[in-house]
Amino acid sequence: MLDDERRRLVMDVTAERIGEASLRYGVPLAVIPVTFDLFGVSAGMYRSAGRQTVIRYNPLIFSRYFEENLRDTVPHEVAHYVVDKLYGRRGVRPHGCQWQAVMTDFGVTPLVRHDWNLEGLGIRRQRRFAYRCGCGRHDVTAVRHNRMRKRGVVYRCRRCGEALRPID
Ligand SMILES: [Zn+2]
Ligand SMILES: [Zn+2]
Prior knowledge:
alpha+beta, Zincin-like, three-stranded mixed sheet, three-stranded antiparallel sheet, 6 strands, 41% helix, 15% strand, globular, binds zinc ion
């Protein structure tokens, strides 16, 4: 698991990246709470709902690939926060050009996926199915996939409102 010392380092680097972006773009960006309560296949998640804004990290994935996550996942999630504050969410794709530009300014390759070996960490890798909407791609869980395919349930993209349709 991820010990306190490394957690503190992750929090420090997160705050540093936020400060760096605040200076570069000339906007005040508060240091937001960081939690280590994300489990599953994602290494990090930025979430903003109402007044609650938080970056969540996956302690299992960080414990195995610490340096890589410090280098990639921390700026990745901070870039989501920066884009949210600079542009809002209307018409902005999560990993679109604004997010990629912030990553590039951070000096980090704007990768969305990593080929990390998560075996033995107790993480169940769920099979995902590729769907698309009017604004991008969605990776859908098997449960949702079956609901759409077998029961005709319609899921809509929260950003563009279009019904999801399979890519293949
Ligand atoms: Zn992301
Ligand atoms: Zn959409």
